[in-house]
Fold this sequence. Notes:
single chain, 176 residues, mainly beta
Amino acid sequence: MKLAKLLAVAGLMVTALAVTSLASGNEVKGTLNAVDVAGMTVTMNNQVYPVSANVVVKVKHQGYIPFSQLPNYVGRWVELKLTAQGLVYKIEVKNSSGGGGQPGKLKGTLQAVDVANRTITVSNQTFTVSANVVIEVKQGKKKSYISFEQLPGYVGKFVEIKYNTNQEVYKIGVKS
């Protein structure tokens, strides 16, 4: 009987871990600005992110490297994978130079919308929003489009934003 209870508890723990990893889906793309190996943080898009002690670092065309070697890649285009709590668990170095003029992409929760100043906050980062922004709202298979002034009604929803090299948002996708 004790073994059955132990197996049930272990099964629940594995399920909880699986749910946690599925819930993490936030990712940030941009230029790596700084790495603090001792402090276990990375700075990207001028935002500091805490890094997991078990972080996985993968360099395109090279394979996996220890986190301690990541400072050699400052200035390069990277993608951070974040847990739901904002902790970096995977870093992918995408190319050998900076952003190369590539736009950035960020997935996360829409935290704030300032209509007067045309800014939004996603994953603790604030972005200016283009006057020509396209905002697409998806409900299942149905898509609709809204104006920037209607966006405050979607605070707390999961979004994917795309922004240019000036960090000006030109597209927002909302999952409702």
